[in-house]
Amino acid sequence: MSTRKARRTVVTGIGVVAPNGTSTEAFWKRTQEGMSVLDRVTREGCEDLPLRVAGEVRGFDPVALIEERYLVQTDRFTHFAMAAADMALDDARLGRADYEDRPFGVGVVTAAGSGGGEFGQRELQRLWGQGSTYVGPYQSIAWFYAASTGQISIRGGFKGPCAVVASDEAGGLDALAHADRSVRRGTDAVVVGAAEAPLAPYSVVCQLGYRDLSAAEDPTRAYRPFTSDACGFVPAEGGAMFVVEEEESARERGARARAEIAGHAATFTTAAHWEESREGLAHAIEGALREAGCAPEEVDVVFADALGSPAADRAEALALADALGPHSRRVPVTAPKTGIGRAYCGGPVLDAAAAVLAMEDGLVPPTPNVFDVCHDLDVVTERARPAELRTALVLSRGLMGSNAALVLRRPA
Prior knowledge:
This protein is of the alpha/beta class. It has helices at about 25-35, 60-65, 70, 75-90, 95-100, 115-130, 140, 145-155, 170-185, 200-205, 245-250, 275-290, 310-325, 345-360, and strands at about 10-15, 40, 55, 105-110, 160-165, 190-195, 240-245, 260-270, 300-305, 330-335, 365, 380, 385, 390-395, 400-410. Helix 13 links the parallel strand 9 and strand 10 (about 330-335).
């Protein structure tokens, strides 16, 4: 029996800042083309570190997008989030005039896994190199995981329920679920998503301890999940923000309902023991489908977690088989992130954005750099596949053991 609520949460706005595009339109164009933008790391201070390949956001000018008073007190990951939030609000046509008489009706939720490493490193270098008087006052807040939620809410005048999911990578999907539950409880709208900037030297050094991080030097072979050449994942920066609203109020103000958040579930399994993630991920998929009132055979496309290590890929393939049964061998599976890298908490929300766009255009985007699939999955490779898409399943697992599944549905 479905546990779906009476109030329905719909996506009315999407904003994207990603390695393959600093707008939603550019991101989707290159995603559906299967373009890979993975390349050698060029960020200052990272050139001599063992990480060779990453997904960098290039051509992003925060000065042109964000007021100076916010720039000086925020890190790159918050710049991405604020810019993407602006795009999402514009897309939803949600302006101050729509909520100035009800500022407590709009909330903000973001997820973060790494925080503001670049800002924090710069200020600590000043502390040890020049002394405490050279450390700015914003060192206390700019690196913090909650910074994006706080700055977006202050900048936009949003006084409704605000939160941050300081979590594993799957926190990106958990943030969307948190926003959905806020709308169920009566909030009119929530600005929600995640963005990461983990390519500063300090942040990269922290990541070098991840045994699943790819050390490959060839960008075309560095991140190839579900293949016999799988050698780990490639990190990335960027992310996506959404505006989600109660369906009826969104329609009343003339907003377009782009997708419904239909179901979500999350579990936890032992960190980095990928064989154990099979059960946890399968349980999350089953829970999300149950909340959505969705049968396994109704899933039209799967946006896979696609970690890129043999054990993790095998566990994901088996989890899909456990949860979807025979349908797991027929449903199209895609992992567009192989062309841009895994942006930690920003990764699954980029997948969610791609899922909404895929349902709108009736097109399953391909999985770049992947050809010889060695699992019993219908992974879409080489070129996009036209398909009638009504329901999308988005999956995410974190390196510390979190698992999450999100069901998105195209509005009737």
